[in-house]
Specification:
Elements lengths: L5 H25 L2 H27 L14 H30 L11 H7 L1 H17 L4 H27 L2 H31 L5 H12 L4 E13 L2 E10 L5 H18 L3 E9 L7 H8 L4
Parallel strand pairs: 2-3
Antiparallel strand pairs: 1-2
Amino acid sequence: MRLGERYPIALSILFNLIAIMVKYMIYSSSFSRAVYSEIFHSIGDTANSLTLFIGTQIYNTKPSPRYPFGVGKILYISSLFSSIILSGSIFYMIIAENIKIYSALEESSLYSGRLWIYMLMLTLFDTATMFIAVRIIRSGRGRSMVLGPLILEDLMGIAGNLMATISLVASNRILDIYLSSAIAFIILAGSIHIGYRSIEALIGHAAPREVIARIIKIALSTPGVVDVNDVKTMIIDPDRYLAIMQVEVREDMTVREVEEIKEDIIEAIRKNLPEIRYLILDMVKPREPEKSYVSLLREIKEI
């Protein structure tokens, strides 16, 4: 059975909803602050997974006259909202309450019984969705830009669940407060990472350096091309880019020959780099300095 990239995301949403209910039942019996933090961790993960799922749906929406480049960037707007506002408020709430509780707390034990077993079992959910996401990326049926955040979410979920399990096993309230605060910092770290990626995409970051390098290589390998003076790329929506390239051709070429070279470059790029959705070529005669592509290749190392 061939699994698409939406499968692990939908599975993650389902598992997180189940995890929220299980963690709430564990918290109701143990009143563990670490488990309490994990409830909100799962709520945040559910919101992020839901954002990713909606994004995969929007990804296939066709451009319109009103939105000629599509509406894929709405994914980054919703990610920014869920990561900074939701996760930030969760972090503040957990830390603020922990400080309040810790200031009036005397070292004591908490009752957990065998609840830690159920908490430990929840790590299997994150492990399963992470394993499926990795397999789909490696098989080429999913994009790392979409499933990468899900894998990061799962890794942080595993870390948080293990901390909550340790807290239940130790049954020490002071340790419980510390581990709860550590989980809050995991939530904050995840929200900062997702927020940074979203802001980068909304500003319009360039395509990956290996993609730009291949664009230059394809152009230079086309007969009649002398040099590549400039390449500018910008993300349009997840894993789709706009590329603008200035290409030098031999001075003795006719207009028809130049047009044929232009068509050859466009066809080769579309065949080998389907992520380049829009391509604009500016064909010019040779100009100084020579071998501009050398400096371009040096510059893209900074991306």
